[in-house]
Amino acid sequence: MRTTDREIIRLAGPAFLALVAEPLFLLTDAAVVGHLGTAELAGLGIAAVVLQTAVGLCVFLAYGTTAGVARLLGAGDRRGALALGLDGIWLAVGLGAVLTVLGVLLTGPLVAAFGVDEQVEGFATTYLRIAFLGTAPLLVMLAATGVLRGLQDTRTPLVVAVGGNLVNVVLNVVLVHGAGPVPGVGIAGSAWGSVVAQVASAAALAWVVVRGARRHDASLRPDLSGVRAAARAGVALVVRTLTLRAALLVTTYAVALGSGGSPDEVATHQLAMTLWGFLAFVLDAIAIAAQAITGRALGAGDVAGTRELTRRMVTWGWASGLVTGVLLAAVSPLLAPVFTDDPDVPGLLVPVLLVAAVGQPVAGVVFVLDGVLIGAGDGRYLAWAGLGVALLYAPLTLAAVAWGGGGLVTVWVLFAGLFMTGRLATLLHRARGDVWMRTGSTLGA
Questions:
Q1: How far apart are CA 292 and CA 154, in angstroms?
Q2: Distance (Å, rounded) from C-alpha 240 to C-alpha 263?
Q3: Chain Cα centroid distance, residue 88
Q4: Domain of residue 382, residue span
Q5: C-alpha distances in Å from residue 61, one per residue of 65, 66, 298, 300
Q6: Which of 55, 84, 174, 222 lies 20 to 30 Å from 354, alpha-carbon distance?
Q7: Using alpha carbons only, how large is the chain's radius of gyration in Å?
């Protein structure tokens, strides 16, 4: 057990810090943009939901790559692991190019679909159209990070994440508000600052992977069959991620619909969802360790070790969720003034954050079991289970709004309670069985 704990800490510690750094891109944007005005902050919230959904659908580039690379590493084939990882990076480049073009062209209709007022829509459109230019770098970051995690290296992504965020902070402050001879350009400056930081981070991570591939004589050229295989393997994880993103979109839409597009309530929801995402990444650090260790253990044929790892990970998950929940509840009255000067937001934000705090232990176990099953290559089950939970959550939440009882807090109770509890039930059911523990160097073998 102590050996397992040390392995979890070794991987999850740097992953925790790196994942905390990742949402700081949006937290930094929210803190800087929020002081421009409530409408700007609400616009950022709408843009962030769309961008996170587009990029989030491609999270399989990190998760699937981590699992596949870890299995090959466990089987003793480091050269093959690096080759598989490079295929994932090439796939990220291709997908990023497509998403960038589509995103820029469809920015207007995507923002208009939320039904917010004209001022908020204008700020959201400005930010999102620029931010889509960073899509390809973001996807390369996902794929390269997945390769390194699969190789049991979570320190390098941490270093790059910290450096990228420092660049992002400086550029946001300078470009949004201006400094010396540099004029501030408002919310557009925040988007440009993030794009530049993302390009730099993607280049640094890709260079580390390329250097490792050269050292082990893995080809740097795209292997079309390998790229296609990576794409096929990611389909189930795309569906799984789509159900998660759909639930978040439904939640945001329900808040906007129930409030009549009120900037105060939409802005409050944006802050709460950003903080929820921040804590989700914190809890997901243990899930990342689960992906890497589970893939390696099953690649080496160690079924008993995988079972013990899962039990221990669940303990880490609920304990971590309990800690984050207590901390969130304790600091909830202090958070709103950090992000906005609007006097109405703090009163709206505190009860929502208390609901989110209660849901943290459940979230901790959900993220851990999700990581274990992803590491095992059990994406098909995750896709079907996620679809079932989303189909239950969406109509009930929208019905609550339509019948006049769907205020901001009610929507969050349904999200933290119904949606997260539903995910917990499906994951616990699967983890108790043995079907998902398939061994071998290939996912699904």
A1: 10
A2: 31
A3: 18
A4: 2-431
A5: 6, 8, 20, 23
A6: 55
A7: 21
Q: For residue 326, give every residue at least 6 positions away whose Cβ sits within 8 Å of its Cβ, in sequence order, or none.
A: 357
User: Is residue 183 a part of any domain in this protein?
Assistant: yes
DSSP string covering 363-409: HHHHHHHHHHHHHTT-HHHHHHHHHHHHHHHHHHHHHHHHTT---HH
Assigned token pair, 430: 């699967």
Instruction: Give the tokens for residue 279.
Output: 């804590």
Q: Report yes or no: 204 and 30 within 8 Å, Cβ to Cβ.
A: no
Number of domains comprising the chain: 1
Give the model confidence (pLDDT) of 101-123 as tens digits: 999 999 999 998 888 788 888 88
Find the DSSP H helices in 178-223: 187-215
Q: What share of the chain is helix, strand, coil (3-state, %, to 5)?
A: 85, 0, 15
- Tally of CB atoms within 10 A around 229: 17
For residue 20, is it within any domain?
yes
- Pairwise CA distance, residues 263 & 41, whole Å: 9
The answer to whether residue 143 sits within a structural domain is yes
pLDDT band at 406 (very low <50, low <70, confident <90, very high): low
pTM for the full predicted model: 0.78
Evaluate the CA torsion angle 213, 284, 308, 327 in order and state its sign: positive
Contact in structure between 127 and 44 (CB atoms under 8 Å)? yes
- Reading the block at residue 175, the tokens are 């470009």
| Residue 279 near residue 271, CB atoms below 8 Å | no
User: What digits encode the pLDDT tens for the residues 184-226?
Assistant: 788 888 889 989 999 999 999 999 999 999 999 888 888 887 7
Task: Report residue 335 as tokens.
Answer: 């958070």
Contacts of 223-230 with CB under 8 Å at 24 or more apart are 223/83, 223/86, 223/87, 226/83, 226/84, 226/87, 227/87, 227/90, 227/91, 227/94, 229/87, 230/64, 230/65, 230/68, 230/84, 230/87, 230/88, 230/91
On whether residue 397 sits in a domain, the answer given is yes
* Contact yes or no for 318/364 (Cβ under 8 A): yes
Backbone angles phi, psi at 179, to 5 degrees: -155, 120
How many C-beta atoms surround the C-beta of residue 325 within 10 A? 21
